[in-house]
Amino acid sequence: MCTVPVLRRICRESYSDPQEVYATLKRRGMDLVTITDHDSIDAAESLRRYADFFLSEEVSGVMPSGTRFHMGVYAMEERDHTELQRRRTDFHALIAYLRERQLFFSINHAFSRLTGSRNDHDFALFEQYVPAMETRNG
Q: How many alpha carbons lie under 13 Å from residue 62 in its C-beta half-sphere?
């Protein structure tokens, strides 16, 4: 069992202590653990010592239309964080990097007003370029 969607259900949009999150997830039977902070990998620092932890991040970006998005990027390396932050305001450059590095990624809460309204072109780009979509946040 993987914790990517489960973490959001347990911790919501909160700022939880990473060690407490890890302990809770392990008690609940999770085999793998990750944390997806917004535009940061700092919380993951204390969890890197665990063999069952993998580094992930929720990248805040901008679509060509100017609308905003949140994208989950999973099983990445620290060097990826720097490059993701550099490219996050250019959707096509971000997608090119993710594909080049063969990183798994998802568009998060695409149907929520959390990042503003979307237009048809945004959804067309998600369908064309993004391999997964978060269907429930929280």
A: 8
What is the pTM for the complete model shown? Answer: 0.86
Nearest to 104 by CA among 49, 41, 64, 59: 59
Do 129 and 95 meet the contact criterion of CB atoms below 8 Å apart? yes
Q: What tokens were used for 128?
A: 């064309």
Token readout for 132 is: 């997964």
What does pLDDT average to over the chain? 90
Rg of the chain over all Cα atoms, to the nearest angstrom = 15
In order of their start, the domains of the chain are: 4-129 (3.20.20.140)
Under-50 pLDDT residues of the chain? 1-11
